[in-house]
Each structure stands twice: as structure tokens, then as C-alpha cells.
Amino acid sequence: MILAILRVIGRRLLAIVPVFAVVTVLIFGALRILPVDPAQMSLPPSATIEQVEAKREAMGLNRPVWEQYAIWAKGAVAGDLGDPRNTACRPSMWFWNVCPRPSNWWSAR
Fold first, then answer.
1. Structural domain that includes position 54
2. Taking every annotated instance into account, which residue ranges of this chain make up the domain ABC transporter type 1 GsiC-like N-terminal (predicted)?
């Protein structure tokens, strides 16, 4: 009985991988199609062209799209969800600070 349950859980967890891959590729592609420049959006309106180009280089936006995705996916798997845009903490740290930890679940009852 337990083995059957573990097998079902294992299959479900393995099914998450292709779904995650397809969804992230679609979202990543959709964000690249948008007519906005993330480097320019992250700088003040008074930024010079040289500053924008330097920011694009620092953000890796001058690399091919497949390479940008590979870098992002590698970071996401490692828990790096990107740089903060409007908060002082990284997204992964925000998640762990806002969401309850499993050790707190039992003590909250």
C-alpha cells in the first residue's frame, strides 16, 4: 500500500518537470516579446545611452535568448529567483520570511 502511494507521488513529482519547463519557456518568451527594455526600465529616465548599454551588459540582455533562459533556469533551480526590483530582500528570502515554516506548523496548533 505504502509502495503504491510512493509510486503515485513519484509519478506526480516527475510530471511537474515538463509542465514547469513548458510554462517557464512560454512566460520567458512572452516577456522577451514585450516592447520594453528591462535595462532602461531599471534606470532613471535621465540615464545616458552608455549607462543603458552597460546595464544591458550587466543584466545579460545582449546574449542570445536561449542563453538568457539557461542562465535564469540554472539560477531558479538553485533557488535564485532574481534581483529585487522594489523590495530590499531577494524574492527567495521574501518567500521564506512570509510563508510559515514547517516547524511552525505544529507549534501553531
1. 2-107
2. 6-80
